[in-house]
């Protein structure tokens, strides 16, 4: 068992279409974690863009997992653009940043760990949602 102070800070960034159900987000999360052999218990928090602050599926997922859900505005996320694996023009037109999931994951991991973060799971796309996982040591 790793000591909490040495365990990396792992943050899941999520982007989704309006009305995306928590079950879809959970399926995407479970699939991504399983593929990368990361346990759900290792996740520190969830992150997204402030436009999704009232998105029921995201709120429900955070409650199910008993994880904090933090939001960033597009200006905070835009700074992560050079580090994204994928630049979505549609995301930019809708949100002002090129990738919500990756940017939000990086932003929160760095904020929580007070250290540089890197993408451990680049953007995964699934029907109505995108997911990315960032970690900071």
Radius of gyration computed on alpha carbons: 13 Å
Specify the overall morphology: globular
Name the CATH superfamily assignment. Answer: CobE/GbiG C-terminal domain
Termini separation comes to: 16 Å
Entry keywords:
alpha/beta, 137 residues, five-stranded mixed β-sheet, Nucleotidyltransferase, domain 5, 5 helices, globular, 5 strands
Description of the structure:
Pfam families: CbiG_C. It comes from Pseudomonas arsenicoxydans. This is Cobalamin biosynthesis protein CobE. By secondary structure, the chain is of the alpha/beta class. It has one domain: CobE/GbiG C-terminal domain (Nucleotidyltransferase, domain 5). 36% of the residues lie in helices and 27% in strands. It contains five helices and five strands. A five-stranded mixed β-sheet has the order 3-2-1-5-4. Helix 1 links the parallel strand 1 and strand 2. Helix 1 packs across helix 2. The longest helix has 14 residues. The model has no long low-confidence stretch (mean pLDDT 94).
Topology:
Layout: E1 9-16, H1 22-35, E2 43-49, H2 56-65, E3 69-72, H3 74-78, H4 89-95, H5 100-113, E4 117-126, E5 129-136
Parallel strand pairs: 1-2, 2-3
Antiparallel strand pairs: 1-5, 4-5
């Amino acid at each position: 068992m790793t000591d909490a102070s040495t365990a990396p800070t792992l943050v899941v960034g999520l982007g989704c279409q309006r009305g995306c159900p928590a079950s879809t987000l959970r399926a995407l999360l479970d699939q991504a974690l399983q593929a990368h052999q990361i346990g759900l218990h290792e996740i520190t928090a969830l992150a997204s863009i402030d436009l999704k602050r009232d998105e029921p599926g995201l709120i429900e997922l955070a409650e199910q997992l008993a994880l904090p859900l933090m939001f960033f505005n597009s200006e905070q996320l835009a700074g992560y653009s050079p580090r994204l694996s994928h630049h979505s023009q549609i995301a930019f037109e809708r949100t002002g940043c090129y990738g919500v999931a990756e940017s939000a994951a990086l932003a929160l991991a760095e904020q929580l760990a007070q250290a540089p973060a890197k993408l451990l799971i680049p953007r995964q796309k699934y029907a109505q949602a995108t997911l990315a996982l960032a970690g900071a040591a």
